[in-house]
Design goal:
It contains 15 helices and no strands. By secondary structure, the chain is mainly α. It folds into 2 domains: 153 residues, UbiA prenyltransferase (Tetracycline Repressor, domain 2); 130 residues, Four Helix Bundle (Hemerythrin (Met), subunit A) (Up-down Bundle). α4 runs antiparallel to α6, α11 runs antiparallel to α15 and α14 runs antiparallel to α15. The radius of gyration is 20 Å and the shape is globular. The N terminus is likely disordered. The structure holds protoporphyrin IX containing FE and farnesyl diphosphate. Protoporphyrin IX containing FE binds next to α3, α8, α11 and α15. GO terms for molecular function: protoheme IX farnesyltransferase activity. Pfam families: UbiA. Its EC number is 2.5.1.141.
Length: 311
C-alpha cells in the first residue's frame, strides 16, 4: 500500500476517515450506478410477477453492488489513463488516495458478494445475467476493446444494457421479449450518450491515447454515427408499447422524448466541427440522461395509470 493511501492525514491534511469513505464510494461510480440501479428496479417493477419487497430490495442491492464492483475494477485497470485525463485525474487512484490493490480487492470482493446475494435472494438466471454484465464491462469493454477500437462502446456498451433484464429475471426467473427490448433500448442509447461527451472531451482521449471515435475518425463521422443510432433508437424505444407490455402513456412519452433526442442529434450534426466547446453536444449528453430516466420512469407509471383507469 502506498504512503499516501496508508496515511489518513498525508494527502489533504483533513480529518481522514470521512475522506477515505468518500474515496471508496467514488470507486463505485455512484452517479452512474444510480441510473443503472433505476433501470434494474424498473425491470423488477414491470415484470408480471409480484415478489416480496424485501426480495426486490436485495435484488436492487445486488445490482448496485455489482455495478459498483465493476466500476472499482475499471478504475483499478485504468489508473494510468485516468491520470492523463483532465476529467478523471482527481480520482482516488491517480491521486494516490486509495492504493491500487485495495481498489482491486474491493471490486473482486463486491463482485463475489453481489452474485452470492443475487443467487440467494432471487435465482440463478438473474445472478448469471449480473455476472455477465460485470464480466462484460471488465473484460470485453475495459480490458479488451477500450484501448483497441473506436467501436469499443458499441460492443462494450452491452454491459450497461443488462440491468432491466436482470431485474425482470430476478422477479420471474426468466428472460422475456420486453427484457430484450429494454436491453436493446439501452444498447442503442449508449453510443449517442457517450459520443456526445467524447466530442467535447476528445482532447482528453487524444492525450491519453484512447482510440475513441472523434479521435480516430473525426467529429464529422462521430456525429453521423450518433445520428444513425439515435434514429434506430426511436422504433426500439416504442417496442415495449408495440409488444403490448405497456400502453399509450409510455408510448407517447417514448415518442416525444425520442423525437427530441433525434432533434439533439440533428443539431449536433449541423454544428461546425471546429467548434471545440461543442455546446450542442454538451446539451445532448445531459439530455441523454434525462431521456433514459424519463422513459424508464414512464414504464411503471403507465402500468399504474392502466390499473387506476381500468380498476
Ligand atoms: C459503455 C457504455 C458507457 C460509457 C462508455 C459511458 C461513459 C460515460 C462517461 C465517460 C461519463 C462521464 C462522466 C463524467 O462526466 O465524469 C458518463 C456519465 C454518465 N453515465 Fe454513462 N456511459 C456508458 C453507459 C452508461 C449506462 C448504461 C448508464 C446508465 C444506465 C450510464 C449513466 C451515466 C450517468 C448517470 C452519467 C452521469 C454521471 C455524472 O453525473 O457524473 N452510462 N458516462
Ligand atoms: C449491473 C452492472 C454490472 C453494470 C455494469 C455496467 C456499467 C457500470 C455500465 C456503465 C458503463 C460506464 C459507466 C462506462 C464508463 O465508461 P468508462 O469506463 O470508459 O468511463 P471513465 O472514463 O469515466 O472511467
Amino acid at each position: 500500500m502506498s504512503d499516501t493511501a496508508q496515511g489518513f492525514l498525508t494527502v489533504t491534511g483533513e480529518t481522514a476517515a470521512p475522506t477515505r469513505v468518500r474515496d471508496y464510494v467514488e470507486l463505485l461510480k455512484p452517479r452512474v450506478m444510480s441510473l443503472v440501479v433505476f433501470t434494474g428496479l424498473i425491470g423488477i417493477m414491470i415484470a408480471p410477477v409480484h415478489i416480496h419487497p424485501f426480495t426486490a430490495a436485495l435484488a436492487v442491492l445486488s445490482i448496485a453492488l455489482g455495478s459498483g464492483a465493476a466500476g472499482a475494477i475499471n478504475m483499478w485497470y485504468e489508473r494510468d489513463l485516468d491520470a492523463r485525463m483532465a476529467r478523471t485525474r482527481n480520482r482516488p487512484l491517480p491521486t494516490g488516495r486509495v492504493a491500487p490493490d485495495d481498489a482491486l480487492g474491493l471490486g473482486v470482493l463486491l463482485s463475489i458478494f453481489s452474485l452470492l446475494l443475487m443467487s440467494l435472494a432471487t435465482n440463478f438466471v438473474a445472478a448469471g445475467l449480473l455476472a455477465a454484465a460485470i464480466l462484460f464491462y471488465v473484460f470485453i469493454y475495459t480490458i479488451w476493446l477500450k484501448r483497441r477500437t473506436p467501436q469499443n462502446i458499441v460492443i462494450g456498451g452491452a454491459a450497461g444494457a443488462f440491468p432491466p433484464m436482470i431485474g425482470w429475471a430476478a422477479a420471474t426467473g426468466d428472460v422475456s421479449a420486453v427484457g430484450i427490448a429494454l436491453f436493446l433500448l439501452i444498447f442503442l442509447w449508449t453510443p449517442p450518450h457517450f459520443w456526445a461527451l467524447s466530442l467535447y472531451r476528445s482532447e482528453d482521449y487524444r492525450r491519453a491515447g484512447v482510440p475513441m471515435l472523434p479521435v480516430v475518425a473525426g467529429a464529422r463521422e462521430t456525429k453521423r454515427q450518433m445520428l444513425i443510432y439515435t434514429a434506430l433508437l426511436l422504433p426500439v424505444a416504442l417496442a415495449p408499447a408495440l409488444l403490448g407490455a405497456v400502453g399509450w402513456l409510455y408510448g407517447a412519452v417514448a415518442a416525444v422524448m425520442s423525437v427530441a433526442f433525434l432533434g439533439h442529434a440533428i443539431r449536433v450534426w449541423r454544428t461546425a466541427d471546429d467548434d471545440s466547446a461543442h455546446p450542442a453536444a454538451r446539451r445532448m449528453f445531459r439530455f441523454s440522461l434525462l431521456y433514459l430516466a424519463t422513459l424508464f420512469a414512464a414504464l411503471p407509471l403507465d402500468l399504474l395509470a392502466g390499473w387506476v383507469l381500468n380498476g
